[in-house]
Design goal:
The chain is of the alpha+beta class. 34% of the residues lie in helices and 24% in strands. It is built from 6 helices and 5 strands. It has helices at 2-9, 29-43, 68-74, 77-83, 148-154, 156-170, and strands at residues 48-57, 64-65, 91-102, 105-118, 134-136. A 5-stranded antiparallel β-sheet has the order 2-1-3-4-5. A hairpin with a 6-residue loop joins strand 1 (48-57) and strand 2. Helix 1 (2-9) runs parallel beside helix 6 and helix 5 (148-154) crosses helix 6 (156-170). The chain starts with a helix and ends with a helix. The mean pLDDT is 93.
Length: 173
């Protein structure tokens, strides 16, 4: 839904397909998205985009990185807060990697980054994943405390999608 809102502003129609393949394990969200896109391109000849997100916590040496979804599902956001106990540095970055393909080929990749920090407590009930503990730089509220339009002004995903949409429109894809 976040991507769809951004793409609607560019008059780009997004349809979600439940194409599920094997996901590689990598520290890099871009490598995960590229691998998925390569597999999709083998059988899907229409236009497509693949997106993968990673949360890199600086003082945890980048953990959970592209494993964020697995860590969220198995341990939850409280685990990241616990791992940060006793550490001063709570800086983190959300990365969104988007890969565009068509005619069975990968055409271009796009990355959006949102810098911020991890909250010392879970706050808000909007969004998904680690939104309840991630505070974007310059903000005192987490993504989960923001409305979707507020989040889409600054989020990693919205940035990647805007870069893609501008490229897509200017290249007459």
């Amino acid at each position: 839904s976040e991507m769809k809102i951004v793409l609607n502003k560019y008059k780009i129609d997004l349809r979600v397909s439940a194409i599920k393949g094997e996901e590689i394990q990598s520290f890099s969200s871009l490598k995960v998205a590229e691998s998925a896109a390569i597999n999709i391109a083998k059988t899907f000849k229409d236009r497509f985009i693949v997106e993968d997100t990673a949360l890199y916590v600086h003082s945890l040496y980048g953990f959970p990185a592209a494993y964020a979804s697995f860590v969220y599902k198995t341990l939850g956001p409280g685990a990241i807060i616990t791992l940060l106990e006793g550490r001063e540095n709570t800086k983190a970055e959300f990365h969104s990697a988007l890969v565009y393909g068509n005619n069975g080929k990968i055409r271009k990749t796009f990355v959006g980054v949102c810098e911020g920090e991890i909250s010392r407590k879970i706050k808000g009930d909007g969004g998904f994943g680690f939104d309840s503990i991630f505070m974007p730089k310059g903000h005192s509220e987490t993504f989960a405390e923001m409305s979707l339009p507020e989040k889409n002004k600054i989020s990693h995903r919205a940035k990647a999608v805007r870069i893609f949409a501008e490229w897509f429109k200017s290249n007459k894809q």
